[in-house]
Amino acid sequence: MVLVGGLSQDFTAGESQIEVQADNVRRLIEALDRRFPGLGAELEAKMAVAIDGEIYQDPYLEPIDADSEVFFLPKIGGG
Amino acid sequence: MATEVKELKWIGKRPIRPDGVDKVTGRAKFGADLTLPGMLVGKVLRSPHAHARIKSIDTTKARALAGVKAVVTSADLPELASEWVPAGELQINFRDLSSNILARQKVFYDGHAVAAVAATSAALAKQALALIEVDYEVLPHVIDVVAAMQPEAPLLHDDLFTEGVTPTPETPSNIAKRVEFARGDLEAGFAQADAVVERDYTTKPVHQGYIEPHAVVASTSEDGQSEVWCSTQGQFSVRFYIAKLLSMEISQIRVTPSEIGGGFGGKTTVYLEPLAVLLSRQTGRPVKMVMTRAEVFRATGPTSGAALSVKIGATKDGTVTAAEATLRYQAGAFPGSPVQPGAMCAFAPYAFETFKVVGYDVVVNRPKVAAYRAPGSPIAAFGVESALDELAKRLEIDPLALREKNAAREGTHAAYGPRYGPIGFVETLQAVREHPHYQAPLGPNQGRGIASGFWFNIGGESCAMLNVAEDGTVVVVSGNPDIGGSRASLAMMAAEVLGIDFERVRIIVGDTSTIGYTFLTGGSRVTFATGMAVVQAAEDVVRQLRERAAKVWEISADAVIWEDGQAHPAGANAGEFEPLSLRDIAAEAGKTGGPICGNASLNAQGAGPGFGTHICDVEVDKETGRVTILRYTAVQDAGRAVHPSYVEGQLQGGAAQGIGWALNEEYVYDEDGRLQNPGFLDYRVPVASDLPMIEAVIVEVPNPNHPYGVRGVGEVPIVPPMAAVANAIENAIGVRMCDLPMSPPRLLAAIDNGG
Amino acid sequence: MAKYHVSTSINDEAVEFLCEPQQTLLDVLRDELQLFGSKEGCSSGDCGACSVMLDGRLVCACLVLGVEAEGRAVETIEGMAKGDQLHPLQQSFLEEAALQCGVCTPGILIAAKALLERNPNPTETEVRYWLAGNLCRCTGYDKIVRSVLAVAEEMRGG
User: Fold this and answer.
1) Is the CB of residue B752 less than 8 Å from the CB of residue B214?
2) How confident is the model at residue B2 (pLDDT cuts 50, 70, 90)?
3) Which of B407, B424, B404 is nearest to B415 (CA)?
4) Predicted confidence band at A1 (pLDDT cuts at 50, 70, 90)?
5) Could you count the other beta carbons within 10 Å of the beta carbon of residue B145?
6) What's the CA gap between B150 and B671, in Å, rounded?
7) Of A36, A25, A35, A26, whose CA–CA distance to A68 is shortest?
8) What angle do CA B543, B545, B548 make, to 5 degrees?
9) Which of residues B523 and B396 earns the better pLDDT score?
10) Sign of torsion, CA B379 B385 B390 B395?
């Protein structure tokens, strides 16, 4: 089970928690894009991913366990 | 990558920084310190209007002046599409960036660049500027963020439609974007509260205030190759931005970062650099451009001013049941205020179950904001940490206890989403409680305030290279301009891994052609991310050293260990050999396979978030409204302080900037939207006599994702001071200040109004 | 524009230069003599990054005209170390980490040296007010003030 939050609600019609089957970030984004067309590009361009609390700024091949908690959040810069 | 528990030789020590002698003798070369033969001087013509349409620009007379070699306007820049392009970890709209470095149809702020000239002397360049004729149609302007949000406000961009609302509005507005972070049932949360504090706050835009103005020298050859020397936080960003703005190939551009005289986020973008390249391309000569201080204030990024509303409710025992914040941030002339990170940081230190933060990114007729230390976070924290203090008073709870009760810990779902790993927020609160400052007696009209702050910290892409010289000394090449002593911390990590003396490691900051892509110095990432790259490059060297020793001893590399800077046989089975030092192996490197060079390139993940808590004592002169900072203590979790002196320096410097933000610093505009105080006399940054000693207390809760436990430290220290000062003032004289700066006239007015 | 010929002494060396009448001493040091140690932070005497000594008096080089150096003695950061011996203030700034970016450092060192020459035993408050004309945006002044006080004590033979 994958719990997803922080998605752009423009694409998800207000859904903020979604279960998806995917074993890495690339597959997860593909799965989300199939369900919400256009979301994939948005996520890849603007969002970082937190997998079980660990933030990845340029996520791609990071593995996701069946019971992982995945959260999308805006990329962070700094001063 | 668990931290190995073993005696460390260098981490935590305080050696003299490798670049130190050059900086105390005047040798260090900053942005304006380079001269090339045949060099021209470039100057920029700036708008005197806050908002105007450019009807025409006539450069004929300027071009005719003897000694003027080139005049450029936006017509000389390629047209770019409006799109947000990932640049490292940032999103840049290059159409806007292009319009910011040279205005296109309209000027959007006093100081907006309109044209640039290159001439044989500064005096001639200034004369040429005066000869450029610009026909403006002055338009109504808007400076204030709340005014800019009103439907009848003067519109800056007629193609700006608010992002983040569904459906997208059909009429343009100054609100570029709406963001929201929320969890739980807000109404039910506030219904459970025994006390609710609701307040509006305002903060002024403040400038990063680096002492070195922006400066660049560019030289472009006839085949289009450009060499750029400039003061920047990121030579690779400058290279990429120039390439995009001038439609050049990245490999045509070589950017060498000078020593940088302060940045604080403000030198993460470009202003002069593309213009200098353009002028040098047109003239075939090197062009030097240096901003005046007035140009720095009028045309380079401050951080946002803001209007915010905060509402927090809690039960009698201090448990916060609901929290709400609305943040309205000025972006300046183009979209892109730090309201999104501000919204994410607002409640980040706390384990609130129910909250809602809404943020608005609003364009106004001011310079486009640039990053400034923990972008967005200090503004939100001023409101939240002030409101929490008032809430503690209502509930008659110690403000420290209120924060402890609600503090985020390992496993807490951060307000911005994910769960925290090991974090040190509670440890900073504990350190405050145990510090003698927290209990020290106070006199009349004196008060003490505390406040906390948060920043994510980032990792990202970095390269590092270690070259072993023939005598066994080592040169490290990093790709990050060193603002606050990072060459020291990086060299210390290299010495630690190699097991050699710090003095035998030298380090340079490479240009874009000598080291691989490294994301800019910012986000408190260098000691963490580039530090990790240096450690890996040093480990690469150690692996090679073991192989070389193995060749000499004619045994397997697996049977060689590296300890205390020497190769040893792994055990009795490996054979009996005298240890080989780095020096020994380096001397024979040619015979065992050639030079020894270690490399690493990585995208560092897992930067540990940073938390800090500050204690501030003030005395208020009720006759004049003047606030004196009597004592100040800044506590922060550094994960692991590699060079504690420079960690302390970050805490002290950030606190001082926050105190300036709290008490003095503001932009003053006249009715026509012209900046009235573009100089250090009237834009008052703290001077030595404004401040007491600032005690830095380092708490160490190691970041498990870094080999030595490092967390970034540069950003957090500027987050707590504004609220810490405001809370102290209230405790001194019972007046709650909600508007920054808390300058003498404003405080006096508040005292006269009975608070 | 006609240039003026100026004879002066810089860091105990006789120096001659040509300058235009509107050029400041800072312009001359940097642009004509290639002495880049004095920094330009504001050109209005507010930041102190260009602090130099003129006949033993602390001045902002951006507020002095180049021609005013005629017949006088100028001391800059480039003359602060003697041979390979750093001045005790320079050494202390290194040891105490009293600089970060380092762009204000030359001016602060010149100003601090001037203070200790006239007041070998300053209080913390005296150091803070003396250095109030030298802006530092990185350090919060803490380590700078500590360093100056420590050197004062050391030079008194403490």
Assistant:
1) no
2) very low
3) B407
4) very low
5) 27
6) 19
7) A25
8) 115
9) B396
10) positive
Strands A69-74 and A3-5, sheet pairing: parallel
- B464 Cβ partners below 8 Å, 6+ apart? B476, B477, B478, B479, B490, B515, B530, B533, B534, B536, B537, B599, B600
For residue B474, the SS3 value is: strand
Q: How much is the average pLDDT of B347-363? A: 97
**Residue (of B347, B343, B342) closest to B322 by Cα position:** B347
- Rounded Cα distance, B27 and B34, in Å: 12
Token readout for A58 is 């340029």
Q: From the CA of A79, how many Å to the nearest CA of chain B? A: 4
- Tell me if there are at least 3 CB pairs under 8 Å linking chains C and A: no
Which of B637, B641, B643 shows the shortest CA–CA distance to B717? B637
Sign of the torsion formed by the C-alpha atoms of B678, B680, B684 and B685: positive
- Please count the CA atoms within 13 angstroms of the CA of B600 that sit on its side-chain side: 26
CB B290 within 8 A of CB B218: no
B264 near A CB under 8 A: yes
Measured in residues, chain C has a length of 158
User: Does domain C4-79 bear CATH number 1.20.1530.20?
Assistant: no
Written as six digits, the tokens of B38 are: 């045949």
CB B728 within 8 A of CB B616: yes
Answer yes or no: are the C-beta atoms of B608 and B436 closer than 8 Å: no
CATH number for the domain whose boundaries are C88-155: 1.10.150.120
What the block records as the tokens of B115 is 């044209």
Task: Please check whether residue C128 touches B, CB under 8 A.
Answer: yes
CATH label of the domain that carries residue B594: 3.30.365.10
Structure tokens at B261: 């005289």
Total number of domains in chain B: 3
Kindly give, in sequence order, each residue whose CB lies less than 8 Å from that of residue B211, ignoring residues fewer than 6 positions away.
Answer: B261, B262, C39, C41, C47, C49, C101, C103, C104, C135, C136, C137
Question: Where does the pLDDT of residue A77 fall: very low under 50, low under 70, confident under 90, or very high at 90 and above?
Answer: confident
Residue with tokens 């950017």: B255
Run of H or E residues at B191:
helix B186-192
CA dihedral B361, B364, B368, B373 (to 10 degrees): -50
| Segment B16-61, tens digit of pLDDT | 999 999 999 999 999 999 999 999 999 999 999 999 999 999 999 9
Taking domain A3-74, whether its CATH number is 3.10.20.30 is answered by yes
Q: Which domain holds residue B80?
A: 34-139+214-290
pLDDT digit string (tens) for C77-121?
999 999 999 999 999 999 999 999 999 999 999 999 999 999 999
Rounded Cα–Cα distance for residues B522 and B372 (Å): 9
| C39 chain-B contacts, CB cut-off 8 A | 30, 32, 211-212, 261
Structure tokens of B620?
């208020």
- Contact B688/C41, CB-based, under 8 Å? no
Chain A contact for B453 (CB, 8 A cutoff): no
φ, ψ (nearest 5 deg) of residue B124: -65, -40
